[in-house]
Amino acid sequence: MIKIIIERRIMPGLEEEYEAAARDAIRHSLGAPGFIGGESLVEFGHSDRRLMITKWRDLRAWKEWHQSETRARVMQGLLPLLTEDERIRIYAATSV
Description:
Layout: E1 2-9, H1 15-29, E2 35-43, E3 46-56, H2 59-66, H3 69-78, E4 87-92
């Protein structure tokens, strides 16, 4: 299993529009092969900063979703609400 961390900065005043677009994105990812789950977080004191944490079966499943036409369509509703490009980081569990 891997976790994808996505950081986003939202244009001031567009938080409600972002929330609706983000819910739509999660709804679409629910049907993606290999999607396990996810959550959306807002940074305390900074309503313009969001963090998405999603879990995927493996890197291949994430890449297929990330490059899919469905995600591209969903992102058309999100991208205009952001002040900068989203930052995506990929994490895998280590044996400790």
